[in-house]
Design a protein that fits this description.
430 residues, Spore Coat Polysaccharide Biosynthesis Protein SpsA, Chain A, 2 domains, 7-stranded mixed β-sheet, two-stranded antiparallel ribbon
């Protein structure tokens, strides 16, 4: 056996070893999902007990505390509930919500993404409120159906409440999984080590631009200096501020930097620009990033290292977003919820930050997804990773992550508008 054959055999063994490791890893993640759902169900039952205990204890104390309370109670009625009823119900809901939140935070989702308690509790309360409304509606509907068979209001209520409770528990679990606690990866992350001999000549950085003349030059300088041999495709959508001219000039001294001039294309948009660039890339891997330095160039190497571990996609997830106002955070939360729910409906691959525009991928795998879904992408949209993952099978696709700090834009202006939001909603629920 010659040396070349030995090398090929070793490579195949390493590949099989890596694939086996990833299969075990994702098998553990699926097992984690089942365990979390079981824990969540137990917590929900405990919460039901806490709710009843707090409600009855409050009524007992208020009735025994002062006879004047009882007299006052008979004088005022609100929606057929007395004052004591309303206070008791509020105490029951409050006690159960706090109890369930603490148990889920530190037991069910103990390894999930950490977040400020006030923000997370607000999310949990919103999910719980929506679940309470759903349970009431379902109980009423099922009770009406059971009354057709069980001609007793009391006995029809029991199975109706049980079925509604089970559905509501699953409803609450899904929303808490994808939104409140943002469970993306249960296993602890290993530190990302970039090998010294890593070959960046097999990587293409794709950056979509439109009037980024202030940023494109510095970005090209940083990337080509930091990552020797890396290729870059600037997918420009018809800039008029000199962006394209700068790229052409840079190409003269560094042929690895190419301009994808889309000025005369019939359809313009960030998504179609990136998809065209992926089709154009001639490397094994690609990394998509904005050129305004909100996506840190030093993280490109970590994404590439992750891709070489065998992932089909590696998402750059925003672990910290300094200086964002509350309204912007609220919009981001809403979009994240919609995006994750869309991925869940489609049974597709997903990640912790589905709204991120900073990600890497295996070129051939992404081309296969694009080719298989010719009408499945919103060309004028702006969340390419979200759409690629939406069309990627959850069972077949391996997704990794690299955390980063999302820095404020220092030069130029954001291009996001209400039209982009509409396009995202259309892509989430086609």
């Amino acid at each position: 056996m010659n040396k070349e054959n030995v090398t090929l055999e070793e490579n195949e063994q390493e590949k099989e070893k890596g694939t086996s490791g990833l299969q075990k890893r994702f098998g553990r993640l699926r097992e984690g999902f089942r365990k979390r759902l079981l824990k969540f169900s137990i917590v929900s039952l405990i919460g039901l007990g806490v709710n009843l205990a707090a409600l009855n204890l409050t009524e007992f104390i208020m009735y025994r505390f002062d006879s004047s309370v009882l007299e006052y109670n008979h004088q005022i009625w609100i929606f057929s509930f007395t004052i004591i009823d309303l206070v008791a119900i509020a105490m029951g809901i409050g006690a159960a919500t706090i109890s369930n939140y603490l148990l889920n935070r530190y037991w069910t989702f103990g390894k999930a993404k950490t977040e400020r308690v006030t923000t997370q509790f607000l999310k949990y309360a919103i999910v719980g409120g929506s679940g309470a409304i759903l349970k009431y509606l379902l109980t009423t509907a099922f009770k009406t159906a059971f009354l057709l068979v069980i001609h007793s209001d009391r006995w029809a209520t029991v199975p109706a409440s049980a079925v509604a409770f089970v559905i509501t528990v699953f409803w609450n679990y899904i929303w808490n999984e994808v939104w409140t606690f943002e469970v993306a990866e249960e296993l602890p992350e290993q530190p990302i080590i970039i090998p010294r001999d890593i070959d960046f000549s097999d990587v293409t950085v794709i950056t979509p631009t439109f009037n980024e003349g202030e940023n494109i030059g510095p970005l090209l300088e940083v990337l080509t200096e930091k990552y020797q041999g890396i290729k870059i495709i600037v997918a420009d959508d018809g800039s008029v501020d000199g962006t394209r001219e700068q790229v052409r000039e840079f190409h003269e001294k560094n042929p690895g930097v190419q301009l994808l001039d889309r000025e005369d294309e019939p359809i313009h948009g960030l998504t179609i620009s990136v998809l065209d660039a992926i089709k154009m890339a001639d490397t094994k891997y690609y990394v998509v990033m904005d050129c305004d330095f909100q996506h840190p160039p030093e993280k490109v190497g970590e994404i590439v290292a992750r891709l070489q571990e065998g992932y089909h996609y590696v998402a750059g997830e925003r672990d910290e977003i300094p200086d964002w106002p509350f309204t912007r955070r609220l919009i981001s939360w809403g979009a994240s919820v919609i995006g994750k729910f869309s991925h869940w409906i489609h049974r597709s691959a997903s990640c912790g930050d589905v709204m991120s525009g900073f990600f890497g991928g295996e070129t051939d795998y992404s081309r296969k997804i694009i080719k298989a879904n010719p009408e499945g992408f919103r060309a004028k949209g702006y969340k390419v990773m979200f759409e690629l993952m939406k069309h990627s099978s959850k069972k077949e696709t391996k997704v990794g992550r690299v955390g980063f700090v999302f820095s404020p834009r220092t030069r130029g202006e954001s291009k996001i508008s209400s039209k982009h939001v509409i396009e995202f909603l259309k892509s989430a629920f086609p």
